[in-house]
Structure formats: structure tokens, C-alpha cells
Write a structure and sequence with these properties.
The chain is of the alpha+beta class. The chain contains 5 helices and 17 strands.
């Protein structure tokens, strides 16, 4: 079968064998493992497949619920070279499936783990991502990863005005939007204050090793070396989350930055003690509705 050929799926199984349902079909009758991808519709089930700038097709393992494990079809992909099998990749199209070509897992870094939602927008879980390297001619498709995971971290500066934000779960469905709006206003006001003092401020975009999605800090003061995380409320949940985020980000900076929590009002004494114990300074404004004055603890 030549790359680019479109056939109905039953004809694929008639030629190669393999399971007739699901995304991974190890064959008992031929030395092949059949892989099926749908880069558009697959996203609703937590499958984010696509080409990376490393020359590999990044293919999500099987399992729509819970953390994926290296069993069954996933194990068949990992062990295909040992078992003498070829990985044959097909893309789901309107008239059937399109053959993209023969692949093998990358010998140096065959797979990594990432996070993706369960099917139909469920909670985040760990998924297995295979790095498939072409064995010959392949049919090109328009399905590129937004980021290609690398083995080293990358930290770059982005404008404060950039709208990228990490998503996080809150108790109320309406709360994230409200929290993000409060944080955006807080970041805008404090960044203007720092600029009025002659400071250079930005945000940092962090791509951790082997991760497909970057992290974005709220603020970074280039003048003082302060890493600033904003929260639109002073609840214990928000303060603890901010401390965790700051500690997570700090690993990627050299020298380590000073950690700062930015909040709209003074936290309770116990939460100030918590921040102090974690080595985090706290800044809050006097009045978010007008030009605030800022207090540093």
C-alpha cells in the first residue's frame, strides 16, 4: 500500500489483520501494528496527535479514562521492533482512512508522558506519547504540534500584555473567569507601578523538559529579579496554589529569583506566616478600584 491511498477500514484489516475497532490494532496474521489517528476529532477524547519539529509524529497511546499504562496496544507499539512488526499509520478521513506510511518508534527516545483531559472534557490524566519516526516515504498532513517537547528546558520573555494563562480547576465553574479577570487587573496595575519606578517587567514563558505545553508566569521584574504570581483572592486555596506555582517556576531560573505573591488585599495572619515559611514575599494593594498604594510584607 502506497502512502496517500484512501481505502475503507475493512479493506485495511482484510490486508493486514488487526483489531477492527480502536486506535491501535496489533495483527496476529501479519507482522504489523495498525495505528489510526484523527487529529481533529481525537481531541475531544484527549488525543493530541501531530508532527513535531523533531521529524517525528507524536502519537497518543490508547485509553480514554484514567492514566494510561504501558499495556495491550501501547505495549505492542513499544515492543514492535523486538516483535519484528512494522507500525503502519492511517488517518481517518471522510471516505475511510488514508495511509500515511510505515513508522518505527524513535530508538533514542521512544515515548514520554504528558497530560490530557479524559474523553468529553473530563479531568486531566497522564497519557503516553509515542515518537514515531518514518521508515520511508510518508504522506504529509496538516497536523503540527503547537510545541515539540525537548530534553532541555526553554525560558523566554513575553510581553506582560500577552493573554496566555495556565488553566486550573476551581470549585465553581464560573470562578475561573472571575479569578482570571481579577488577576489580569491586578497584574496590569502592579506592572504599571513597577514601570513608573523605572523597572523593566515582562512575563516568562517556560517549556519544561519533555512537556508539550508551556507555563506562563504572571510577572517577572527584570530589574530586581523578582518572580511574581498574582491571585485575585486571598483564600487559603489561592495562596497555597500560588506558592506551588512559584516553587515550580523557580527551578528554571538561574540565579534563583526572589518569590513574590501579588494579591488585592492583605491576607490573614496565618497565610502571611505560611508565605514567610515558604520564602515568599507578599504584595497587596490598598484599593483596587483606584490608583493603589502597595504594601510589601
Amino acid at each position: 500500500m502506497q502512502p496517500g491511498v484512501v481505502v475503507v477500514r475493512r479493506d485495511v484489516h482484510a490486508q493486514y489483520g488487526g483489531r477492527r475497532q480502536g486506535g491501535i490494532g496489533p495483527s496476529r496474521s501479519t507482522p504489523n501494528v495498525l495505528l489510526f489517528t484523527d487529529p481533529v476529532r481525537g481531541r475531544s477524547h484527549g488525543y493530541f496527535d501531530g508532527w513535531g519539529d523533531d521529524g517525528c509524529f507524536h502519537y497518543t497511546g490508547e485509553g480514554q479514562l484514567g492514566d494510561q499504562r504501558m499495556v495491550q496496544g501501547n505495549q505492542a507499539i513499544l515492543g514492535h521492533r523486538r516483535d519484528g512488526r512494522t507500525l503502519r499509520l492511517f488517518r481517518v478521513v471522510r471516505d475511510g482512512v488514508e495511509y500515511l506510511g510505515a513508522f518505527e518508534i524513535d530508538p533514542d527516545r521512544p515515548w514520554y508522558t504528558s497530560e490530557a483531559p479524559e474523553t468529553n472534557g473530563g479531568p486531566l490524566r497522564t497519557v503516553i506519547m509515542f515518537r514515531l519516526r518514518p521508515q520511508g516515504p510518508v504522506q504529509s498532513i496538516d497536523a503540527d504540534l503547537p510545541e515539540t517537547p525537548t530534553t532541555i528546558s526553554r525560558v523566554t520573555s513575553v510581553p506582560v500584555e500577552a493573554s496566555n494563562a495556565e488553566q486550573y480547576a476551581m470549585t465553581s465553574p464560573a470562578e475561573p473567569t472571575t479569578a482570571f479577570r481579577r488577576e489580569a487587573a491586578l497584574v496590569g496595575a502592579y506592572s504599571e507601578h513597577l514601570r513608573s519606578l523605572g523597572h523593566e517587567v515582562c512575563r516568562k514563558r517556560i517549556l519544561p523538559p519533555n512537556e508539550p505545553s508551556p507555563l506562563f508566569t504572571d510577572l517577572f521584574d527584570e530589574t530586581t529579579g523578582e518572580l511574581i504570581e498574582a491571585k485575585g483572592t486571598v483564600t487559603r486555596e489561592a495562596v497555597r496554589m500560588a506558592i506551588g506555582q512559584l516553587i515550580d517556576y523557580r527551578r528554571f531560573f538561574e540565579p534563583p529569583p526572589r518569590l513574590v505573591l501579588l494579591v488585592p488585599r492583605k491576607p490573614r495572619p496565618d497565610l502571611l506566616d505560611l508565605c514567610s515559611a515558604a520564602g515568599v514575599s507578599v504584595v497587596w494593594g490598598s484599593d483596587a478600584s483606584s490608583t493603589p498604594t502597595w504594601t510589601i510584607n
